Amino acid sequence: MSSHLDPTVVREPHINRLIENVEKVVVGKRAEVELSIIALLSGGHVLLEDVPGVGKTMMVRAIAKSLGAEFKRIQFTPDLLPSDVTGVSVFNQKTMEFQFRPGPIMGNVVLADEINRTSPKTQAALLEALEEGSVTTDGETRELQKPFFVMATQNPIEYGGTYPLPEAQLDRFLFKFRIGYPSINEELEVLNRVEKQHPIEILQPVISLEDLLEMQRDVINVYVDESVKKYIIDLVNATRTHHAVFLGASPRASIALMKAGQAYAFVQGRDFVVPDDIKYLAPYTLQHRILLNSDAKLSDITNERVVKEVIKQVNIPVGNESAR
User: Fold this and answer.
1) Taking every annotated instance into account, which residue ranges of this chain make up the domain ChlI/MoxR AAA lid (predicted)?
2) Are residues 143 and 278 in the same domain?
3) Are 186 and 144 in the same domain?
4) Less Cβ crowding at N or C end of the chain, within 10 Å?
């Protein structure tokens, strides 16, 4: 997957610094780094589905260190309990009161590693955090600190002892994509960089959390024309009527695609969204939000193929009506 971003575009300086800093650790994966930052700016979350050892953990750690953010890691296992994620109240014998001990979900940047290896009950503990930005324990709702960004991983090869994520859980992730193997030259560069010391150990913050929160506020104000909104709705609706689809993308997918388009336009240095932004982001936003019917599965039709067909069949708005 190659970067779709125009290198000649003059972008927000903070964005360039953030991308370049993460690339000191993650070699040759600029498009994937950019998608992660787009999700971060739009308040969304990412599901990485890839084999072990391609740099999933390093990428999320590098993003956290580049922001000077509090990084937390949750290693999902079959015996993990919901309270291990959200936190638990413990009785303090000195004060004779219960005190809440926050779980690892209470970080700025959270790595949910191998999320499909834990039980559905524990997976469900993430739902409220991903959608509402809060967790409820002991009958009390606690707001999560901002910014809050979750990058979850799962292995697409080993399915033994795993619990596939239900549709409601998948729908909470803004993007789903893979990192993939590096090229030979990129892998050689990786070896050269880690020969004496891993670059993640010396990575320094390049922007502050306050800078990030300000950019998130700016993203909300990026203009989306009615024609672009109609294009988003047409794409999402086309997934519901495709002959290979049993369950199409929900209205939450429309919202996600619009929010992602705003963040993408901001990264591109624009204050308005164009249809090409939506077209580029649609595969990462829609593929994991549809269910194929049994005939499609028997015919080896994939979610990726369906979304590509949908993008081809839906007319793109033309002219200047999509820009201010």
Assistant:
1) 238-309
2) no
3) yes
4) C
Q: Stretch 260-282: mean pLDDT, rounded?
A: 95
Continuous segment of H or E residues that includes residue 283: helix 275-286
Q: Is 63 found in the same domain as 202?
A: yes
Do 9 and 142 lie in one domain? The reply is: yes
Same domain, 27 and 171: yes
Domain enclosing residue 99, as ranges = 1-219
Q: 114-152 pLDDT, tens per residue?
A: 998 888 888 888 887 888 888 888 778 888 989 999 999
* H-type alpha helices, 171-274: 184-194, 209-220, 226-241, 251-267
What is the share, in percent, of the chain residues with pLDDT greater than 70?
93
pLDDT for the residue 11:
57
**What is the model's pLDDT at position 101?**
87
Q: What is the β-pairing status of strands 149-154 and 109-113?
A: parallel
| Verdict on whether the full-model pTM lies above 0.85 | yes
**How is residue 312 written in tokens?**
């081809």
Find out whether 42 and 260 touch, Cβ atoms under 8 Å: yes
Per DSSP, the chain holds a count of helices (H) and strands (E) of 13, 11
H or E segment and range at residue 143: strand 140-143
Beta strand 71-75 pairing with 109-113 = parallel
